[in-house]
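2024-03-11 09:14:02 INFO worker-7 job=invfold-0412 stage=load source=structure_tokens
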């Protein structure tokens, strides 16, 4: 590989890694907010019957940008293989853990009185405790943090395994199958791992299953809808590297990854 192409490849990895890292960390930080999927679309609550529970699409705000992580992960999978995905996944998990440690430390800092006094009313004139609000927004339970990190890492490892198993079977054809298929499998596992670690013993197993399947319906639909963006991402990379070079790098990545499987 010539020097110019190698520089472009390294630059591509940095760009994709930056997008992956940023969205994964931000998704974890905003994940404390639960929003109504139906309300966002102006629809009535779904009231799905799941294992005897009436379920609506009440989703973590992180679900809004996790699809960006899925797409970026598939692109890293395609051009940098299993080593590339493992490298960025472990780094991201470490940085997410670091972010939670820093947040925990800042929550323990004594607030300045003037800061509390200057921010003690909402727009309607209602009083509130700014320091309590800060801690309530940024604070997450230890089990939720552990569950989220475990689900993220396991999901990424499953994703890369399924992706390259499918690529071995289909070659460089059927991009939609390996990209969307690996995401659907990994997100199915992710949906239940995080819930069982975070809420086992707090919710019944049946309730956890009901929540998990409801969340997975959303993730399934999003993964299908995002398939065209995978092709758009490949188009941009082909433009950046040159189509012939991009295909060569993808083939080399597939060969290296297959040696690990």
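2024-03-11 09:14:09 INFO worker-7 stage=emit residues=261
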């Amino acid at each position: 590989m010539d020097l110019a192409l190698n520089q472009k490849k390294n630059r591509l990895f940095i760009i994709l890694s930056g997008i992956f890292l940023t969205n994964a960390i931000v998704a974890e930080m905003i994940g404390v907010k639960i929003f109504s999927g139906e309300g966002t679309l102006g629809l009535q609550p779904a009231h799905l019957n799941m294992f005897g529970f009436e379920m609506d699409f009440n989703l973590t705000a992180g679900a809004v940008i996790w699809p960006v992580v899925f797409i970026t992960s598939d692109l890293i999978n395609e051009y940098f293989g299993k080593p590339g995905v493992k490298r960025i996944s472990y780094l991201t998990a470490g940085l997410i853990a670091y972010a939670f440690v820093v947040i925990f430390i800042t929550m323990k800092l004594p607030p300045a009185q003037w800061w509390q006094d200057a921010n003690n009313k909402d727009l309607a004139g209602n009083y509130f405790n700014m320091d309590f609000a800060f801690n309530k927004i940024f604070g997450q339970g230890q089990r939720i943090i552990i569950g989220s990190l475990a689900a993220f890492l396991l999901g990424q490892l499953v994703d890369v395994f399924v992706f390259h198993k499918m690529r071995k079977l289909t070659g460089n054809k059927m991009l939609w199958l390996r990209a969307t298929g690996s995401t659907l499998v990994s997100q199915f596992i992710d949906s239940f791992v995080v819930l069982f670690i975070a809420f086992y013993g707090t919710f019944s197993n049946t309730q956890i299953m009901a929540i998990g399947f409801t969340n997975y319906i959303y993730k399934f639909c999003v993964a299908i809808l995002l398939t065209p963006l995978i092709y758009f991402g490949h188009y941009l990379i082909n433009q950046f590297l040159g189509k012939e070079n991009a295909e060569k790098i993808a083939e080399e990545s597939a060969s290296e990854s297959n040696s690990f499987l």
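2024-03-11 09:14:09 INFO worker-7 stage=report msg="The first strand starts at residue 34 and ends at 36."
2024-03-11 09:14:10 INFO worker-7 job finished
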